[in-house]
Specification:
Order of helices and strands: HHHEHEHEHEHEHHEEEEEHEE
Number of domains: 2
Structural class: alpha/beta
Distance between the termini: 29 Å
Number of strands: 12
Largest sheet: 7 strands, mixed
Low-confidence stretches: none
Radius of gyration: 20 Å
Length: 319
């Protein structure tokens, strides 16, 4: 499958004033920094209820697919722990398994493959590439036996992609016989206050420390060091912003002075004070996620949320 050249994407990131998320996951150093953040600040590391909801959805799915030939396609698996729980449950229910992780980072794709290996009898061929490849993925998967049910996982994608971009592609990806498991980071908000934007914003701010910490800032700032532009930008700061009616955390820096340079044979110009967005992470509520999915012909089916209401995972169906 083809991928957009990295040079072109770096140029586009600077010209648009928004760093493409894939650059935060590529290379040994970036992958290690991300893993450091995950170990230090992901609630999964400290609260067993986060693991519990993924194991529950895995067990429920596995029981319904018992004895089937299942091809698990993991979209952006990162370290691959959650996918390994799913594979373990499927194997326990007698499923014949195949696994294809699709990740923008080579190191993370290989790590996910390694963690999954104990549950597989077939060779795993990871795909290294970002999710712009989704349109080509079904035809690439046609090389595998027709009797294999395709089970896609999208654990951890919803925070870092605009709803209109992600859900339109997931909707077009699915065939009627395919299955999708989707997780979302949630604002810990009581359902009765879901329509109150100020309560929604306040709920988001309670989980901001998971992002606004030295480890996360180090990880997300590394790309500026790698590109040699860190000294030209202010220290990055987080704020809560609206993204297509979904609130999220946005990390941005400002150019310290008017800046001109040649960037990979292309002139670049930024004004003093102009913003460069490094990262964003969205926080849904179950109601807002369900409403958003409806616009793209998708609906939430069975699922589970943590008692603290910070994470949810569901099966998603086409309407």
């Amino acid at each position: 499958m083809r991928a957009e050249p990295q040079k072109t994407r770096r140029q586009a990131s600077l010209q648009s004033g928004a760093i493409d998320h894939l650059f935060h996951y590529q290379g040994v150093k970036q992958s290690q920094l991300w893993l450091d953040v995950h170990r230090a600040h992901a609630p999964l590391s400290a609260d067993l209820s986060f693991e519990d909801i993924f194991r529950k959805i895995s067990l429920k799915t596995a029981r319904e697919l018992a004895g089937r030939s299942v091809h698990v396609i993991a979209l952006g698996p990162g370290g691959g722990e959650k996918e390994a729980w799913l594979l373990e449950a499927l194997r326990h229910e007698g499923c014949a398994l195949r696994y294809t992780p699709v990740d923008a980072g080579l190191e993370l794709a290989l790590l996910s493959t390694e963690i999954a290996a104990p549950f597989l009898a077939t060779e795993t061929l990871p795909i290294v590439g970002d999710l712009s490849l989704l349109e080509e993925l079904p035809s690439w998967l046609d090389r595998y036996p027709e009797n294999e049910l395709r089970l896609y996982t999208a654990f951890g994608l919803t925070p870092n992609f605009l709803p209109s971009w992600l859900f339109s592609r997931l909707s077009s990806l699915l065939r009627p016989s395919d299955h999708l498991l989707l997780s979302a980071n949630l604002a810990p908000l009581d359902e009765s206050k879901d329509q109150d934007i100020e309560s929604y914003r306040a709920a988001c701010e309670t989980v901001l420390p998971q992002y606004n910490n030295p480890e996360t800032l180090r990880w997300l700032s590394q790309v500026l060091e790698d590109w040699g532009i860190a000294a030209s930008l202010s220290a990055p700061t987080f704020e809560v912003q609206d993204f297509e009616d979904i609130l999220g955390f946005c990390l941005h820096s400002q150019w310290l002075s008017e800046t001109r340079f040649e960037w990979e044979n292309t002139p670049f110009h930024a004004r003093a004070g102009q913003s460069l967005r490094l990262f964003f992470s969205l926080r849904y509520t179950p109601k807002r996620l369900a409403k958003t999915l409806q616009h793209f012909g998708l609906m939430l089916d069975d699922g589970f949320t943590t008692p603290c209401r910070q994470e949810g995972v569901w099966r998603v169906k086409q309407t």
